[in-house]
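Service request form, structural biology core

Requester: graduate student, group of Dr. S.
Request type: structure prediction, single chain
Budget code: on file
Notes: please return the result as structure tokens.

Sequence provided:
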Amino acid sequence: MQRLTLNRRPLFVRRGRLLLAACGISLTVFFCILSINPPSFLSQLDNRFFDGMIADESPPQWEMLPVVVSLDDESLARFGRWPWPRALVARLLASIAEMKPAAVGIDAVFAEPEESTLGHDTPASPVRLSAGDRALATALASGPNVLGFGFTFSPAGPAPAGNEPLHPLNIVSLMKEGADDPRGRLWHATGAIGSLPDFEHCVTASGFINSAVEQDGILRRMPLIIERDGRIYPSLALATVLRKEKGYEAVLASDWTGGSILKIGGMRIPLDERGCLRLRFRGWQSRIRPISAAELLQGKVAADALRGRVVFVGATAIGMSETVATPLRGTIAGVQVHGIAAENILNGDFARPASWLYRLLAVLVLGIFSTLVCMRLPLVSGTLVTGCAALAAWQGSVWLYRDDGLLLSPLLPLFALIVNFSLATIVRSLFMERSARRQTQDLAVTRDFIMTSLASLAEIRDTETGAHILRTQRYLLILCRELSRHPRFKPLLNEETIELIAKLAPLHDIGKVGLPDHLLRKTTGFTAEEYEEVKKHALYGRNAIARAESRAGTCNDEMLGYAKDIAYYHHERWDGTGYPEGLKGEQIPWSARLMALADAYDAMVSKRIYKEPIPHEAAVCIIIEGKGTMFDPDVVEAFLRVEDQWRRIAVELDDSAEIEVALD
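Core staff response, request fulfilled:
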């Protein structure tokens, strides 16, 4: 029984798409989870991405930049090593105050009195200020100065008490009902190192000078507010800006995305949950030279150089200042970091890290997009569209930062896009390969069915039975495999060709449909005219296949070429006495030579309307006699090696055999 199975393609396609959708959704969910709580290595990659963008930023307007008065190498060479006499420091601050700055942040701590007063007091007596200390106190009180101090963080518990800061920030918390107080998430200092109380009382503001270097040694953010004993203190940069703005009332509001917003007057400063400001470097600190303290003391600075400006005083000399690495692939002094933070606050020019919700939405959109692309578009088009989407995501992230300061990294969404598309492509390729195999099988079965149906159409008008078709197929299959070991035929007969030739056997007599019934069913011999008419069936068969080939639009198809050769030439004889062309020897196509022997053998051992069958042995003798005249000698030799197998086929598939073709 030969069965023809027609696969249900739509069901197979639906299952493939469902699997693609399931894989895409699963991966998208996985990346969404990562976006909410990204691993440390991904955060480091995000930092590297933003570092690259920062390096290309344009500087802000010069008029809005803070000014750094630096204790540089030139100043130390001119006035001696640090610490300077307090009178000289007082003179420097007085010179700055004469230029009418808006605020002066001092990145220095005067924690002890000048050396000239040490040792002259008993523990019970107060510290007596020297003339230099008194001059410094006067200078501090005479200008818009903001003193710096440092916080300490002891994991073992509170640090020993030092000179405590006197100017906490007047701040209130604003939060939704049931939410945690954002002040509870700030850095908690355990101690402080500040200037002498006599100096602290001379100013109206002070700020901490601590910074926060990340694990890779790069400074990208700095604390703007820190908690100490229930009070909130500002950084030196924030305190100096507030000294200029003359406003201290602040509100710390919880952001609905998990961050915080520090509201002071008209300023809205975005902070992370630890109260840190992400610094927006624009490279101006390396392009604009700080003012040397020596030049200022010597009167070499223009009188209006500091008017109305925010000024920071601190050390930049080698070995004296604390230097930090920046994303700009260079190092700057700590006092310059305060200047960058102040510039960000003054200009409202912030780098705002995107919340987990924005990252989640970006991953979700690109993950679903890549899945749909792979499901709907061909591979090449899908790859191009995915590449364009990746480029758009990258450029969109750059645009968001440069236009709005939003730090939305494209890396995790791009991972979701690329991994999703790649996995979906692999899954689809596997399904396409499986589908192609099934399609090939379907086409092969359909082709066999069509060929068998065409042969059966000829049987309706011929006396031969369907068993003849199966027998000749099996004869050819066995004969081809035997000949595939022969040197002449080995290059021609691979397994695929053998299967093809065997399947084409039913078409050898398809031309008989063009013969009239009285010839096909005649029980006596043909007249000369009738025989000439019968011989035309070879031409009819070839022309029928050729017309079908032309109408189908195919050209040089191997299978149809073999089919035409078998149908047209299978009555040619080795000695050239056959028909329709009278070809001789190797001129006869090899497939037709094989078909000629198989057809002749089956005609001899099978019953026909005009004859009775002859025994197998007699047929073998006739074939041997026709060696070199009717048949190719090598083909006859191969037949003799497999003639026992042909005998069994003739017995098993006699003319009483029936063929059932089932359509499932």
